[in-house]
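thread: overnight batch results

M.L. [08:02]
morning all. the overnight job finished for the chain we discussed friday. pasting input first so we're all looking at the same thing
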Amino acid sequence: MKRWLFEQDRKAVSQAFAVALLSGLIATLTVSCSNDKDLLVTEIGVSPQTTPVANPSTAKEFYAQGQYKHIQGDTQGAIAAYTQAINLNSEFVAAYNSRGLVQFDTGDRQGAIADYNEALRISPDNAQAYNNRGNARAAQGDINGAINDYNQAISLNRNYAEAYNNRGNARAAQGDRNEAITDYTEAIRLNPKYAVAYNNRGNARAAQGDKEGALSDYNEAIGINPNFGAAYNNRGNTRVELGDKDTGLADLKRAAEIFQEQNNEQLYRQVMENVKEFQD
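M.L. [08:03]
and the structure it wrote out:
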């Protein structure tokens, strides 16, 4: 395995994803490996607004229940709750958008796009729905369509760091590393604690041969999020490429530990295969 780029990504997008609870945020990270073993990850998510009630009866209550079930990993329960919310309020933009996130989570990209389309029909200026639809389109391989959606999201919200990051991933998938770096840099300017964008910029710099710049970005990503498995993986690969094999292997083993702790067996196995290759 080579370098991983966090987002969602863009060559063979979305072979695995995880739902992580971070400071009350449902963050859906779509992960994929390209033919070069790069990993792209895109962040999409919503923050629960209300603690769910035991027996919901209103659209708002079913919506809160859907968010809670999504956090718990009950995707079918979340879809059912959001659907109830929509049945009670057919103009409930947030419910369409959130149900789209769960559909995306389950691998139903077309269902997700249908929900984002409905959210945008009701609310044409909804930047989050454009960003999320861009992620779904990217996952289907429609990179140009994804970029168009990220452009719309950014035009509606110039401070939308996640949309810049995701557009950077799409541009990187097209081989436009310079523009990708520009987008990652803007995402970091808007959110200096954006570990994902540092990781992704590191991958773009590494692809351009700037290994030292890549290392600096991976260091920043890990400093912000010490449990960022992909950043350890990427830094480990870069260190091995620079001739620092022992330290690089230590990073790779730490990445494997993190993925194992997160019950992500697919990425754990991939990293361990990479470690074995370097040790042989």
